[in-house]
């Protein structure tokens, strides 16, 4: 009996406003990925009108967007998003996260894709 393949894990982390993750295609099988995107920003002491936003694009199409007022003056705040994506056999997948801010400063923008394998 063949042992199951190890689930794929793809990850990128930047200290900038744009993160891109490429997952190559697999010729012989479809795969399902749990995608987690996380934005962490530093909030100024005087947070008046500070905000941060996160946009997620999958293969060039907007999947999700949210903009919120930044909380926690002098500390950090953030946004997180989770989704599942089915990648059919053959094509690759491009995931792009874009952070927007006013007043707050991007500390970390991370994308992680974990393959979900059936038991």
Describe, in short, the structure shown.
The chain is an all-beta fold. The chain is 0% helix and 62% strand. The chain has a four-stranded antiparallel β-sheet, with no helix packed on it.
N-C termini distance: 15 Å
**Mean of pLDDT:** 93
The strand order across the widest sheet is 1-8-3-6
Q: For the CA atoms, what is the radius of gyration?
A: 17 Å
Question: Could you state the order of secondary-structure elements as H and E?
Answer: EEEEEEEE
Helix content: under 10%
Low-pLDDT residue spans = none
The total strand number stands at 8
Tell me, briefly, the overall form: elongated
Biggest sheet statistics: 4 strands, antiparallel
Question: Beta-strand percentage?
Answer: over 45%
**Helix/strand class:** mainly beta
Our count of helices gives: 0
Notes on the protein architecture:
The chain is mainly β and 119 residues long. It is built from no helices and eight strands. The strands form two sheets. The chain has a four-stranded antiparallel β-sheet with strand order 1-8-3-6, with no helix packed on it. It has a four-stranded antiparallel β-sheet with strand order 2-7-4-5, with no helix packed on it. Strand 4 (51-58) and strand 5 (61-69) form a beta hairpin.
List keywords for this structure.
four-stranded antiparallel sheet, 119 residues, mainly beta, 8 strands, 0% helix, elongated, single chain
Blueprint of the fold:
Blueprint: E1 9-14, E2 18-23, E3 31-42, E4 51-58, E5 61-69, E6 76-87, E7 93-102, E8 105-115
Antiparallel strand pairs: 1-8, 2-7, 3-6, 3-8, 4-5, 4-7
């Amino acid at each position: 009996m063949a042992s199951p393949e190890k689930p794929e894990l793809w990850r990128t982390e930047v200290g900038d406003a744009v993160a891109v993750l490429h997952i190559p295609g697999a010729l012989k099988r479809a795969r399902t990925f749990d995608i987690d995107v996380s934005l962490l920003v530093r909030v100024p002491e005087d947070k008046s009108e500070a905000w941060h936003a996160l946009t997620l694009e999958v293969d060039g199409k907007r999947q999700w967007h949210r903009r919120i007022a930044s909380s926690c003056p002098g500390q950090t705040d953030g946004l997180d998003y989770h989704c599942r994506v089915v990648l059919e056999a053959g094509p690759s997948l491009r995931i792009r996260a874009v952070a927007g801010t006013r007043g707050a400063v991007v500390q970390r923008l991370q994308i992680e894709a974990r393959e979900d394998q059936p038991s």
